[in-house]
Amino acid sequence: MARLYLDYNASTPIDPDVAAVMRDLLESAYGNPSSGHWAAAPAMATLDTARERVAALLGCAPDEIVFTSGGSEANNLALKGLCGGPRAGPTHIVTSAIEHPAILEPCRYLATLGAMVTRVPVDGSGLVDPDDVRRAITPDTRLISIMHANNETGTIQQVADIAAIAHDHGIRFHTDAAQSVGKIVTRVDELGADMLSVAGHKVYAPKGIGALYVRHGVEIEPLIHGAGHEAGRRAGTESALLAAGLGKACEIAQNWIGMPGLAVLRDLFWRRLQAEFGNQVVLNGHPTRRLPNTLNVSFVGRVGADILAAMPEVAASTGSACHAGQVALSPVLKAMSVAPEVGMGAIRFSLGRRTTEGEVDEVVRQLRRVLA
């Protein structure tokens, strides 16, 4: 039986055109971009082009892009760089209860250094109420960080409204856009972001590369100290090879914004699940304010991990954690107040550019077999 990949929110395959660009650079851009001789020139030119391509997708200036090793480092640089440096002073951070661990764990670390952290709740569809953010602000609030789109449910937050609240109070706003870049519009001025995180392997680029957008005038302390790479914001010799992959992926992504074809296929998938399983399958997340490729559903009274284990050819995700034989409810669904008998049966199907209607039909057939 053919293997079926519906876990594009976890990672995407490298786009063939991205691979072709990187293949061409394997032997030609080997110089250190920071060196001042002929061998450095191709590497520096490659970095410049990549930075311009990422900036074009985000609608910012190229020198506002800092290349990182991925989305987790970008998030850590944003939070620790703004709130963990020697000049931070009394610090309060506002974030949400459904953030990725790459936000929540840096917040926990900063709390050990004395920072205060407020995690605002979400409603049953996974949405943050901007008024809750407003009420959480204190005189010491230095940063508000709310993800653009949730990795499990795909729910899209009202980040522009929240950013406006932050700016009304003179507070910086950061958004983790790892799941939304390349899927929906992520123009930094429209979102009101002072900082925005990008993960390469979520946008058909390689793993090991990401970026942090840092608006002009925002000063951050580097996580990695050394020579003055990335305008002094991230030390370490840049990988022209990986940056070129991310740049090309962002250039290609311009043609995929909105993913109208995938949204149609996702909705078809949901209708077929409803037709097959009726009220034994429920939708998790917002019915309309969600990523066009994401379908998180629960099979009531079942365990999502058990269902996927019975369909080894299907790559999807549960969002639940399994420790010592015990399955725990996804923290995101728990924050949404999803009942355990519903949430334990959750499976996230995330579609991608290669997903076909035939693959969707095959997954429905396998679910019918397993749940019969």
Question: What features would you describe in this structure?
Answer:
With 372 residues, the protein is α/β, with parallel strands linked by helices. The protein has 2 domains: 4-11 and 257-371, Aspartate Aminotransferase, domain 1, CATH 3.90.1150; 16-253, Type I PLP-dependent aspartate aminotransferase-like (Major domain) (Aspartate Aminotransferase, domain 2). Helix content is 38%, strand content 16%. The protein contains 14 helices and 14 strands. The chain has helices at 16-25, 40-58, 71-83, 101-112, 130-136, 159-168, 188-191, 229-232, 240-253, 260-277, 304-309, 331-335, 340-343, 357-371, and strands at residues 4-5, 65-68, 92-96, 116-120, 141-145, 172-176, 195-199, 210-214, 281-284, 294-299, 314-315, 321-323, 326-328, 346-350. The strands form 4 sheets. The protein has a 7-stranded mixed sheet, with helices on both faces. A 3-stranded antiparallel sheet has the order 9-10-14. Strand 5, helix 6 and strand 6 (172-176) form a beta-alpha-beta unit.
